[in-house]
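Milestone M4 deliverable, item 7.
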Amino acid sequence: MDITTWMTNHTGWADFILVGLFRQSQHPALLCVVISLVFLMALSGNAVLIILIHSSAKLHTPMYFFISQLSLMDMMYISITVPKMLLDQVLGVSTISIPECGIQMFLYLTLVGSEFFLLAAMAYDRYMAICHPLRYPVLINHRVCLLLASGCWFLGSVDGFMLTPVTMTFPFCRSQEIQHFFCEVPAVMKLSCSDTLLYETLMYLCCVLMLLIPVTVISGSYSCILLTIHRMNSAEGRRKALATCSSHMM
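Output delivered:
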């Protein structure tokens, strides 16, 4: 028996139904057009940014390398949810199979976690650049950048590997309708007929602990950066330092 058949028998049906955003809208066609335009703008903007960074030798620096990784994550992040939602609205369908739901959930969790850790890596990069400028080219070289980016992707996937299999093996019997436009863990867990209180508590605890690491790194890095900027005697140096990291801080 293959995994698809097993999951179908285990849950009692073959597909979930995504309620989505359009069912509650008074103007679903207009909403669909607006979301499509925003999606295409975000996709093209991030794609252009990645192409520019990789095509210009002047932008082959750690800061722009991490920005290109962030753009890649953003492109993938919106591509696993928005196209499915728009296509369902155009075709008039709203179903998603259980394997597709599991894949979407895994990718979503992986990208969310990876992006948090990448923001921490970007904050650490700016800390090294501003607080240790003389040693920066040696400490943050291309190899270190690749290791940091790979570590972000790996740590993000840990969340997906932990939560997705457990979530998708619960028996679902309350309803077929997921009150969301994609397979998010809390929305899927509401359909389970088992007692999921302990699992949901552990899940939220795990997510909070995973968030504490990047939040701590980001807070610590920018605290040191602001302290270093405050100690600078040169007004021009303070201006350049703030200009370098202000977008990241925002």
